[in-house]
Structure formats: C-alpha cells, structure tokens
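Re-running the complex after MR caught last week's input typo. The corrected sequence lines follow. Everything else is unchanged.
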Amino acid sequence: MKKIALIALATLTLLAGLLLGAKMVQIKGSDTMVNLVQILAEEYMGKNPATPIAVLGGGSGTGITGLINQTCDIASTSRDWKPKEIDQAWDKGVTPRNFVVAVDGLSIIVNEKNPVEQLTIAQVGAMYRGEIKSWKAVSDFQKPVSLYGRQSNSGTYVFMQEFVLGNKNYSTDMKEMNGNAQIIEGVLQDEGAVGYVGVGYLFDETGHVRKGLKVVKISKEPGGTGYVPTDKAAVDSGDYPIARPLYMSTNGKPKGVAAEFLQWIVGPEGQAVVGREGFFTVGEGKYKAANDKNFK
Amino acid sequence: MRHKKWSDFKESAIRAFFFTCGILAVLVLIGVFLTLLATAIPAFREIKVGEFLLSTRWDPTSPEKAEYGLLAMIVSTLMVTAGALVLAVPIGIGVAAYLSDVAHWRAREILKPVVEILAGIPSVVVGFLGIVLFGPAIAKVFHIGNGLNALNGSLLLAIMALPTIISISEDSLNAVPRAYSEASLALGASRWQTLVRVKLPAGLSGIIAAVMLGMGRAIGETMTVLMVTGNARSFPHGLFDAVRTMTANIAIELGEVPYYTTHYYALFAIGLVLFVMTFAVNLVADVVLQKYQEREQ
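Corrected-run output:
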C-alpha cells in the first residue's frame, strides 16, 4: 500500500514537473540586468502564479548564445547584438526581436579619497585605453590610475568599449572583475581606482550612494557642464553622456507567456518596478515606438 | 566438480571486471586527449603556432584586431604556481617531518584530521577568503593600492596544496624502515641529524611525488585564482601585478564564446597547453622516482 502511494506521488510530481516545465519561461543574459529581471519576474509571478519564469545571469553574450542555440526563451542584453551574432542567429533560423525594457546610466566611480570631481568622456576613454596612467594628468592627485572593469562576456564591457573607448582596445592592465559588486568592492579599497558600474548598484539599502564611493560628473566636451547618472532628469534629457537602453530579445514575435510578461514589463506596473530598482524608465519617446512595432 | 567450475568462472569474471576498470582509466585519458586535440587543431588554421605561444597579447574580442598570444598567461600561470610552491613545499615538508618524528601522539591525533579537513574546503570559499582577508592585508602590508595580484593567488594556492604535500610526505616518511633511524641513532647521530640526513633522503621519492601532486593542483586550480588575481591580461612584471592564468581565462571566456569559431578552438588549444604542461610535470616526477628507486636498490 505504502509502495503504491509512493509511486503515485512520484508520478504526480513528475507529471507536474513536465507540465510546468513545458510552460516555464527561461530568461538568460546580462548580469547588469539579472537583479532587475529577477524582481520583475517575482512580481509578475506573484500576480500570475501559474506562470513560472526562471532567470539566469552569465552576461549578455551568454544570453545571446542561449537564444541562438534555443536554450532560453528570452535573452536579456545590455548592448546591441553584434553583426556576427545576428548572422549566426539567422543561420540557425532564429530572428531576434529586441524590446527596450529600461534605460541604464553607466556610472564612473572613484574612491572618495580621490579629489577628482569631473571628467570628460575622452579622458575616461584615455584612461581605459591605458593612455593616461596617472591621476596627475587630470587632477592634482598623486596616484597611478588603477583600472577596474568587467570581463569580456559582460555587456557592460562591450558597451563601455564601443561608447567610451571609441571601439579601441582596453588596456591589458585593467583588472577584469566578475561583476558590478566586485568592481565596487575594489574601488572602495583602492584609492587610485576608477571603475564603471550600472547605476542600480551605486545605492545601499537606504537609497543613498554607498559610503566610500564617489560618482564622477561626466561632460561631453572639455569645460562643458558635467552630469551624474543619479540625476534622472539629466539621463532622460540625454544630457548625461553615458546612458544605454537595456533589452530583452525574443526569437521572432513573442508568444504566450513571454509576450504577456514583456507587455507587463513595458506597461505601467513593470516600469514602476524598473524605476524603484534604480534604473530609468523607457519613457514615451523612440524606445516605446520601437517596442510597439516589435510586438506586432 | 561442478562447484570447481563455478568458482573458476567467478574467478575469471572478477578478473575481467577489474581489468575493465583498469583499462577504462586509460581509455578515458586517451579519449580526453584526442577530443582536446581535435578541438584545438582547427584554431591553428587562423593562428600561427609561434604567435600563439610567443606573443603576449590576448584579445580575441578586440574591435581593432583579434589577437591570440598566450605567453603572458603561460608566464602568469607558472609564476603563481612557483610562488605557491615556494611557500608550500618548506612548510609542507616541515609539518610532515613534525608529524612523523617530533609530535607527541596526542598532537598528531588532532593535527592530522585538521590537515585533512583543510583539503576539503571548497575552492570558492578559499577564493572568498582571498578577497575579504588576504587582499586587504596584502595591500596594507606592502603599501599598494589593492591586493588583487599574483601574490594573493600564490598564498591561496599554497594553502590548497599544503594538505596534499603534508599527507603524502608524511606517509613516505613513516614508510622509511625503522632500522634506518635506529641504526643512525645507534651510530651516535642526534634526532635532528637522523631526520635530515637519513629519513628525509630515504623518503625523498614520496616527497617528490607529493610536491608534484601539489604542483598539479596549483596549475589546474581555477576558481580561487579567478577570484583573487585581478585577471589583467598584461605580461606580469612581478608578484604585485594583477595576472590572468590560463585556467581563469578559459573559465571567463568559454561561457560567452560563439561555438565553432577561432576563439572557441583557441580556448581548447589553451586546454591542450595546460594538459601538456601537467603531463610533463607528471612524467618528470615519474622519471625522477624511477631513477631514485633504481639507485636505492
């Protein structure tokens, strides 16, 4: 009797697993976005308990590879697809569609003991290319520049390279860290450090910028007005120079649960979560228009 | 009569089973090597072997020009490993000698299990210690900006190699026949002289094996060094430089690499280089052991 009950139970669990597994939405990709997407998924599942969503990090490249090899339903990416990746997707019959779900301001951070207040995009680029090796070149700080960055599987690494380094090579002296949190740890300890992290990682539980960090003002031109990425108005207006859209990509037109989830994210409820997590919302401009087109 | 046949059959069945087990290890080794070779060779359709081994710049995702130079990583791996051995070998042999010859049996009863537990600590935990404990400490002691460097990696790898070196060295010291040390003491040698001039040389083969195994562990370790060495791709100029080892590079890049591209094959080529290095270490250890044992007999 006991045996039969056990077997029945095992079968039931297996069946339930299969049923749920069939509907399970797999999201893979950007480490910058993994916290945000996890929280979005949890909120959504709280309202729609029958739709399990699994969220994995690993970097934008990992997510894109996952979508191409069809091991996930949605890839979250913090950069555009490379032409090479799009070619590979088409070769495998995958037609990616990208939805902007949030906007991220990439922030340049230094140790609070560093007196520098403002840098131009060009100066940050020169530091990361290894052309400026001492803080003396940009301020009266007598320390060598100690570069902290992400690893090449990170969308932030690629975005920074395209956007700030002008598509040139990173200095090989850059310490390549495993994630945003590790870069922050490094900058907190290293007085000569400079690092780049997503704006959502700057704050502690109370919503203030973490103690020991300084967010540098960035200007487009030498002598121009500098802006910090924590200034929402500056990011929305495009005055803050290092901002980027965050994407979720699907294979072709999104269907079923994935489509409902994406609609919810770009809708008012999802965007409220996005704002609460320290990212900027999609807004009513060109990103919204592009999203609407992709849903059709 | 029938009973005899049955036991004969059982005997040969058991023999066949153990033979299969033995041959399986060999087959797996050959299989791994061939797979590695087959996946690594396509890399050299686009990369010159000389450039791969002798150029110092590795930047496969570069927007300017993809480069596949492994030398900086080979040197980094050797540097971190050598640093670890310099720390771990004297301490390891010292602890082994203490355990086998000096320690009170009660001290030994406590120390031996502790050393074995040390071997069981997951590498990611050791790496975490490196980030929160060793890193800041190194930065303070040496007045440098940060502790993410080769020295930190060496320290942690030394800790990870110690249990191997200690337990195998101690076993080999214990295996030295009692008659050796009794004869030495009877001739008027002190305990120190007996240990250093008689027991250590007599157990040398085991100690060399222990060091080689510790070295193998250090070369192959990935997670710990990935977490604490800073992973900068530049050619290392000293123990205070951030370095990237070959294992760390494979771990970092294999997750995102598009399959069946030159970059993908190049990562397997790194694996092949690692395989050849550890194979060479083991081979040298074997040859040394053989020579030593021949001379002993």
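None of the earlier attempt is carried over here. Residues 2-23 of chain A form the longest helix (22 residues). Chain A has eleven helices and eleven strands.
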